[in-house]
Amino acid sequence: MRTAETKRETKETKIELKLDLNGTGQSDIQTGVGFFDHMLTLFAFHSQVDLSVQVEGDTWVDAHHTVEDVGIALGQMILEALGDKVGIRRYGTSYLPMDETLARSVVDVSGRPFLVFNADIKNPKLGDFDTELAEEFFRAVAMNARLTLHLEVLYGSNSHHMVEGLFKAFGRSLAEAIGQDGSNRLPSTKGRIEG
């Protein structure tokens, strides 16, 4: 089925998330953090997954709990929806140009969670979104989906373009990695994907 959904509740956030890896890029995003909604919409479109995210979060504190907890929930649902990972491509790479910015995302659906994040984003805030939360979001996704994820802004100067480039590049590289190759094999010489 390659679908998953969760209701995740803490003292800081209440999240309802639905994911369909065989989607068409449709999204319904309401996190209470406008810029983050925009980024998740772009991620869904470029990864060609259907994604619904509804959040009640303590945004009067700041957006940190909302952004990180959505990353946790999304990562967990990616892992669940992938199931045994038989027949997926496993690896994905995307270079994403956005005007003066070039972003790169390389992902391995390996079962070995790791994040390398290299982006010198100058502007500390984009709307209601602290730009340092981009790394927190991607770390939460990578750790909980058990992805090896390398994200980098190779060059750029506009902070909006840099963050947007990373979300789009991640979506495109993930789409490639979770794409099905028509085989009935596990994409690993070990006979299993770690995790």
UniProtKB/TrEMBL annotation:
Which family does the record claim for this protein?
A: Belongs to the imidazoleglycerol-phosphate dehydratase family.
Keywords on record: Amino-acid biosynthesis, Cytoplasm, Histidine biosynthesis, Lyase
Associated pathway: Amino-acid biosynthesis; L-histidine biosynthesis; L-histidine from 5-phospho-alpha-D-ribose 1-diphosphate: step 6/9
Q: What class of enzyme is it?
A: lyase
Q: Which reaction does it catalyse?
A: D-erythro-1-(imidazol-4-yl)glycerol 3-phosphate = 3-(imidazol-4-yl)-2-oxopropyl phosphate + H2O
Q: Which SUPFAM superfamilies match?
A: Ribosomal protein S5 domain 2-like (SSF54211)
| Species | Exiguobacterium alkaliphilum
Return the protein name. Answer: Imidazoleglycerol-phosphate dehydratase
GO MF annotation list: imidazoleglycerol-phosphate dehydratase activity
Q: Name one Pfam family in it.
A: IGPD
Cell location: Cytoplasm
Does the keyword field hold Transcription?
no
The enzyme's E.C. designation: 4.2.1.19
